[in-house]
Design goal:
Chains A, B, C, D: This is HTH tetR-type domain-containing protein. The structure is a homotetramer of 210-residue chains. With 210 residues, the first copy, chain A, is mainly alpha-helical. The first copy, chain A, contains ten helices and no strands. The longest helix of chain A has 23 residues. The first copy, chain A, binds a DNA duplex (21 and 21 nucleotides) through helix 3.
Chain lengths: 210, 210, 210, 210
DNA sequence: GATGAATGAGCGTTCATTCAT
DNA sequence: CATGAATGAACGCTCATTCAT
């Protein structure tokens, strides 16, 4: 009812444009799923957010589940795994802390996806994501015998920081920038990985491609 | 709270039944909410698990949400905050890794509650829990100026470890015992808190057996 | 909207009576399924007809399909298979022509069920019904070698008569009573079964038990 | 009807396309409607079967119902009503039993249409068909007073045989060929019609190859 | 004229919750 | 007071059909 005369000021929303409609649905889905989780999000919610008929979800994505899958496919920040090795951890912190995740409601997508972790499928996605983004890269860096464990411990820290920042909202972490965390993280990482890690990274190394 | 002094005038049996039924509902709710999350759990599920009629949930707790609130009130492991200060972090790790959380489906209740973190209520619970259990105690220990931040960073690690262990299930952490983690944790904690922390704790310090 | 003030003249419809509600649903389902077929009947139709909430269908029957199964379970007219053998065919004709099938919308339930014969389940039901009610009994009576075929031919006639009467509505059959058909049927049956069959049956031999 | 004289001005190719598409839709519709019934068949099913866009159905036929009407117009087997009168019933049996009805999913179209008999339109079609194909021809043959009734009874038998053969699938009839049924049918027909009927027919008299 | 994006009603079903007995 | 019948909103999804391009 409040949208009756919106058509005038809506700038350039093309109607009957398959790609545009698909994109709007995907965008709305990403946000809803991130904020409310899979179960609390209805396809009608997403459709309403997109200003699009709900049946198009099924036309374009097949099912709510498939939409979820597509919506929660994170494109890991380009450049994370490139650049100087000793700055890898600093880049990871940036990814967690400074990166612009507004597309996912302002939270790291991994954290957002935990909200849907009642579903084994979502859990698997999280697992793959954590391994691909953090554990594997860190394991390659770690020296000594229990490299896997230490890589996971460091990964756990990244995830934990994301959670305290956005879900829990503890005061210091919620406000902190990557630069505030860098010295601490570098010290710990150096310790855990058994090789010197830098607290700063020259460039972002984590600008989402989308 | 209104049932606190009821035990005096009970006619022996029917009263205990009421209490027993309430307790069974709570127990079933705790498990379901932890495992499946708030949305994926139906009041009928809980009632069925408890072997009682679903309407009793409304009679006893008012609504599904209130049942959730009551069911997700974690009794933080007794003894966590007692004992030698230098062993505090080691005790925390034990709480996360070795403690028997079968009451909550085998996961640390904080981790389980993340599954329901779409709801502001659950988020508040998590916030309170994290602060009460981890941040506050660690902040008191930390030396130097940004004590809060460092306490939160360490808390984030505890939470992150819990997540990777049970939700994500990364291979090394999923199998690890507190003893495997102790040396790494002690080193990092010593570093972050600016005071020597021990990697072992004499006793559990958090049995809270239910 | 036209039912707003019906509550006054509804004579004795007991509310909150499980059996009564179940019975009303079943009755409405029987009629709808018979008249419109499975696919064209919605659970809301049935609920509306019964003056009952649609969700009770699932409470009491589990699913639309199970309701259909129960609603289409014909109790074959008591007495059909009893009584003098030479009057069996006459009794069958009565079942098809004179029996009061208003419960099924005025048609023989077999004929009504043909409307749902797109579903293999319904087809199986029809098959069982036809064999149990007609073919088996007639085969036992037939003399000579291709008894099965002749029994089926006679059964086909019964079914065909039912269809022309109610679905097609050909003028003579639609008006005919069993007595009008009896001489013709008796002659043919005598011929097909190879033993004398009577054109009259003393008693109805087909009063549905329900 | 508006396309009757279009063939004169066609530009050779595109017109034939339109006709060809229309024909394919009709063919697919015939099959689907016969096999699954009106309600269980969706316009998308038919379009998919034909390999064309679903909206063409509305373009060419107006609505699903109109497509159904057109698709269920049976062309009664040519030659049924021609040929020696005493072989008429034998020809009818052939039509029911031996004729190639693959166009209608292998069943006599009358039988197939019963699946849609919830709709008055379909019922009317069946009525017309039964009268035109069976009752009228047989009435003309019958001697004596209640010729109509006897003609209908014999028609009922034809229809019933079709039903038991394909819908119900009773064992003997499902396998039988016209030749197996001929002697029985001839005897009964002779009896019912009051004039000698032959059990064999020289030629099919109803090919209607499409 | 043909394509396919869009629509809105309706499907079977489950939900949390209320109310009568 | 407890049981369970009842309720109505909402769910994911499919339908026949229309309309813009």
């Amino acid at each position: 009812m409040s949208t009756i005369d919106d058509q005038a000021r809506e700038p350039a929303v093309p109607k009957r444009d398959r790609e545009a409609t698909r994109a709007r649905l995907l965008e709305a889905a990403r946000l809803r799923f991130a904020r409310e989780g899979y179960d609390a999000t209805s396809v009608r919610d997403i459709a309403r957010d997109s200003g699009v008929d709900a049946t198009l979800i099924f036309r374009y994505f097949g099912s709510k589940k498939q939409l979820f899958d597509e919506a929660s496919a994170t494109d890991l920040p380009a450049g994370l795994l490139e650049g100087p090795q000793e700055e890898l951890v600093a880049r990871m912190v940036r990814t967690v802390v400074d990166h612009d995740w507004t597309k996912y409601g302002g939270e790291h997508p991994l954290v957002a996806m935990l909200r849907s972790s009642a579903h084994e499928d979502a859990r698997r996605r999280i697992r793959e994501e954590v391994c691909a983004t953090y554990v594997n890269a860190l394991r390659d860096l770690a020296e000594g015998e229990d490299a896997e464990l230490r890589a996971e411990l460091l990964s756990a820290w990244m995830v934990g920081i994301g959670i305290l920042r956005s879900v829990v909202g503890t005061p210091a972490l919620a406000e902190a920038r990557a630069a505030d965390l860098a010295p601490h993280v570098a010290a710990v990482a150096t310790d855990l990985l058994g090789r010197p890690m830098s607290g700063t990274a020259d460039r972002e190394g984590g600008s989402s491609r989308t």
